[in-house]
Amino acid sequence: MEVPGELVGALRRARSVCVLTGAGVSAESGVPTFRDAQTGLWERYDPLELATPEAFEQNPRLVWDWYAWRRELVREAEPNPAHHALAELEELVPEFVLVTQNVDGLHRRAGSRQVVELHGNLGYVICASERTPVSPDEFVPAGEDRPPLCPRCGSYLRPDVVWFGETLSMGRISEAQAAAAGCDVFLSVGTSSVVYPAAGLASEAARSGALVVEVNPQETPLSGASDHVLRAPAGTALPALVEALKD
Ligand code: BJW
């Protein structure tokens, strides 16, 4: 695909690049996005309703099982050319921060090193009361209608992810905001750009003078405010971008 020359030039000159990714970057690995239809067992449920503290309060076992299913799906998935291209891009620029809203861990598996997991990681489990990590060999096993329990206080266990209405880790959001405000080029890849505070990072980058680029086959609220839009799947656009940079 054609990559705009101005974008390649800006990346060549860039001292610092910040990339924000969303569920679309993992779509080509077979991991469903949030706002696309779900498949199989989960087609009756809206993922945006399951990813809430209210859903966990009302039906903790259902929410636990949904994450257990996704953990298995992600374990079997492989990073795709978009993840690999971002890992390669990190090696081609002086400073690079990859901020991801994804909880699937696929960026690190592809070799990305400077990764900020804004919404957590579903591979880790925490006690819902103490908020401390619990390893699988410590779980008090699940009951028929409840998740496993914390071995220390008996509370429900939950995935270490950020649900709607919950606050993000101060350390992670500060790191992401500093990277966005300090970069020369900001790439927003595979996100619908509607969930805050992540969706605000592109405007922070633009305010500081960065070139803002969107990679998404669909229009989003960010499209009109972007300097360049690569209207293609991430697995096509990002390898093309990295190849153009190496030419
Ligand atoms: C492809 C592709 C391909 C497909 N290649 N692309 C300011 C204004 C308004 C509201 C708020 C605000 N500040 C805070 C809020 C409230 C709320 C919020 O943002 N609400 C909006 C929806 C209105 N935010 C929060 O509650 C956050 N907490 C917070 O701010 O605390 C303080 C506070 C609380 C309350 C009020 C005010 C302040 C927490 C947000 C946590 C989000 N959590 C989830 C679940 C994580 C765990 C899990 O994975 O289960 O995060 S929800 C879900 O949305 C998930 C995602 O990370 C996130 C973003 O979704 P994403 O990644 O963009 O995916 P999709 O599916 O939406 O889009 C996929 C895109 O890919 C599409 O565009 C496709 O076209 C594209 N695509 N194939 C490239 N091959």
SSE map:
Layout: H1 5-13, E1 16-21, H2 24-27, H3 47-50, H4 53-58, H5 60-76, H6 81-92, E2 95-100, H7 106-110, E3 115-117, E4 120-127, E5 157-161, H8 170-181, E6 185-189, H9 201-207, E7 211-215, E8 228-230, H10 234-246
Parallel strand pairs: 1-2, 1-6, 2-3, 6-7, 7-8
Antiparallel strand pairs: 4-5
Helix pairs in contact: 6-10, 8-9
Bound molecules: ligand BJW.
Largest sheet composition: 6 strands, parallel
Number of strands: 8
Q: What level of helicity do the residues show?
A: 25-40%
Q: Taking Cα atoms only, what radius of gyration do you get, to the nearest Å?
A: 19 Å
String of helices and strands = HEHHHHHEHEEEHEHEEH
- How much of the sequence lies in strands comes to 15-25%
Number of helices: 10
Gap from first CA to last CA: 14 Å
Coarse structural class: alpha/beta
Which compounds are bound in this model? ligand BJW
Shape: elongated
Mean pLDDT value: 96
Multimeric state: single chain
